[in-house]
């Protein structure tokens, strides 16, 4: 079934209103429900899951330093929308099928409000996971202005819950950002980019077996998922009518596995002003942007003097990345139509410099960790990935001290690029360097085979998700805090995360 492109307008995600607010705190309630939504005008309405009756969920917008409380409420039906593999850790038959827990991705937050994978809860909190602590989460938002997102993080079924629709934007704003005179208001638009496939009746398609089916299992986890259509803000291949002026777009790769290498078919530059964890020191003008799953980038696109033009946002990232099949590439993301007359003079700017970022010095690191990314086979002959060759429930081995700075060497022994996300903290990318994988596998020694590769211009700044490329050692540096307790780090390819490529870590005093 081939769907027409650019027939539906891009949905602008609504801002969620709090239940109440006072000078000291703000309180939200966010319900998760099942409903039908039109994802393309040529499809029947699709049954999805979402927050507050929409997929993606409404945008939560807060001030830096604002103390926010959110009660995440599971009002979902008992039966899951998608096929569950009960051989996956945490998803066995002795727990309810429909469990949820919410993680605000990029948030600096106390451990009990971070959305730990085992802190799940069911409809009405009737059943809860072993690490569940409380119904109302607290977010202190002790960060500068930043584009974050909230999404499900339940052990064993994260890939299914997010695919069903459980994701939304969470934006922190501050006065410094306002003084920069960036495009704002209706000219500041978050874009969640995801891939999906559909049955002919309009329902979501998610495979219940890998390409080589596992005969002994009714449903088996797949190693990677690639949908054949691209949705932006919950619409397949939409268009957006714009004025001939500057717009700010917050791009999020919300896909399970797919990477995006984004360009504009007009050939014009995109001005990147921010990374995952906030604004950059100064903008960079780039022709293409690579986004791994869960990465965000904050950009300005200038449509000035382009009246009457249609500009297509394209993608040419191989799938899987970086050496995948060109047959899996979906080349079109969305279209901009410069079709609205200018409503007022555009006084917004692309600033020359924005926010100084304090570079962490390698000399300040009190600990260095060498952590491998490994490929394995399970009892059914399925591939599964590990961090430091350890499964989820192995004893905790990463226990950084509060306030300490560490350097992590991510040693990728697999053939995939893995987007590695560490909860609680932001980090800076030091460099990448190719090494001899065979020698490492035989002798456990890193033998570098090429020069140091500095981070891409688009990665310079604060990050919370990093591409660990195959046959390379990726080095990141970070300071742990301001909270102590139990967090996780994992690959953000959701099929990998769900099947063992996630580890707990503990910040200690």
Name the features.
37% strand; 3 domains; 509 residues; globular; mainly beta; Immunoglobulin-like; 5-stranded mixed β-sheet
Task: Using the alpha-carbon principal axes, give the shape.
Answer: globular
CATH fold field value of the largest domain: Immunoglobulin-like
The percent of residues in helical segments reads under 10%
Beta-strand percentage range: 35-45%
According to CATH, the homologous superfamily of the largest domain is: Cupredoxins -  blue copper proteins
Walk me through the structure:
The chain has 509 residues and is mainly beta. The protein folds into three domains: 158 residues, Cupredoxins -  blue copper proteins (Immunoglobulin-like, Sandwich); 154 residues, Sandwich (Immunoglobulin-like); 146 residues, Cupredoxins -  blue copper proteins (Immunoglobulin-like, Sandwich), CATH 2.60.40.420. It contains four helices and 31 strands. The strands form six sheets. Strands 10, 11, 12, 13, 15, 17, 18 and 20 form an eight-stranded mixed beta sheet that branches. Strands 1, 2, 3, 5 and 7 form a five-stranded mixed beta sheet that branches. A five-stranded mixed beta sheet has the order 14-22-21-16-19, with no helix packed on it. Strand 1 and strand 2 form a beta hairpin. The chain starts with 19 loop residues before the first strand and ends with a strand.
């Amino acid at each position: 079934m081939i769907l027409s492109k650019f027939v539906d307008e891009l949905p602008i995600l609504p801002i969620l209103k709090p239940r109440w607010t006072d000078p000291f705190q703000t309180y939200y309630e966010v319900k998760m429900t099942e409903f039908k939504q039109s994802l393309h005008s040529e499809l029947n309405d699709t049954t999805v899951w979402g927050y507050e009756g929409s997929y993606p969920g409404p945008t939560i917008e807060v001030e830096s330093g604002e103390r926010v409380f959110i009660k995440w409420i599971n009002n979902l039906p008992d039966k899951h929308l998608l096929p569950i593999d009960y051989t996956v850790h945490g998803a066995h038959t002795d727990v309810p099928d429909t469990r949820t827990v919410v993680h605000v991705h990029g948030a600096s937050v106390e451990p009990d409000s971070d959305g730990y994978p085992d802190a799940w809860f069911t409809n009405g909190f009737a059943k809860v996971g072993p690490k569940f602590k409380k119904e109302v989460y607290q977010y202190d938002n002790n960060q500068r202005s930043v584009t974050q997102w909230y999404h499900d993080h339940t052990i064993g079924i994260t890939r299914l819950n997010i695919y069903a629709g459980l994701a939304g934007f969470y934006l922190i704003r501050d006065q410094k950002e306002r003084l920069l005179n960036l495009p704002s208001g209706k000219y500041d638009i978050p874009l969640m980019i995801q891939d999906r496939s559909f049955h002919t009746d309009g329902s979501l398609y998610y495979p219940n077996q890998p390409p080589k089916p596992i005969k002994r299992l009714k449903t088996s986890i797949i190693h990677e998922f690639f949908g054949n259509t691209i949705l932006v803000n919950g619409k397949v291949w939409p268009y957006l009518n714009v004025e001939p002026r500057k717009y700010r777009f917050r791009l999020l790769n919300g896909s399970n596995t797919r990477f995006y290498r984004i360009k504009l078919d007009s050939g014009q530059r995109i001005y990147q002003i921010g990374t995952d964890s906030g604004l950059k020191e100064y903008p960079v003008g780039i022709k293409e942007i690579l986004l791994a799953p869960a990465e965000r980038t904050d950009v300005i696109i200038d449509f000035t003097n382009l009246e009457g033009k249609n500009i297509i946002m394209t993608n040419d990232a191989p799938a899987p990345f970086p050496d995948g099949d060109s047959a899996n590439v979906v080349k079109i993301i969305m279209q901009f139509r410069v079709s609205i007359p200018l409503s007022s003079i555009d006084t917004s700017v692309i600033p020359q410099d924005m926010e100084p970022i304090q570079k962490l010095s390698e000399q300040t690191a009190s600990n260095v960790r060498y952590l491998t990314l490994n490929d394995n086979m399970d009892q059914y002959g399925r591939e599964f990935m590990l961090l430091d060759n350890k499964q989820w429930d192995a004893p905790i081995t990463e226990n950084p001290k509060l306030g300490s700075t560490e350097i992590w060497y991510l040693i990728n022994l697999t053939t995939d690029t893995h987007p590695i996300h560490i909860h609680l903290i932001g980090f800076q990318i030091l460099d990448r360097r190719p090494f001899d994988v065979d020698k490492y596998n035989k002798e456990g020694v890193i033998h570098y085979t090429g020069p140091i590769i500095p981070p891409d211009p688009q990665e310079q700044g604060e990050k919370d998700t990093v591409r660990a490329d195959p046959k390379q050692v990726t080095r990141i540096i970070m300071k742990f805090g301001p909270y102590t307790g139990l967090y996780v780090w994992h690959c953000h390819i959701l099929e990998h995360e769900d099947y063992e490529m996630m580890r707990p870590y503990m910040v200690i005093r």
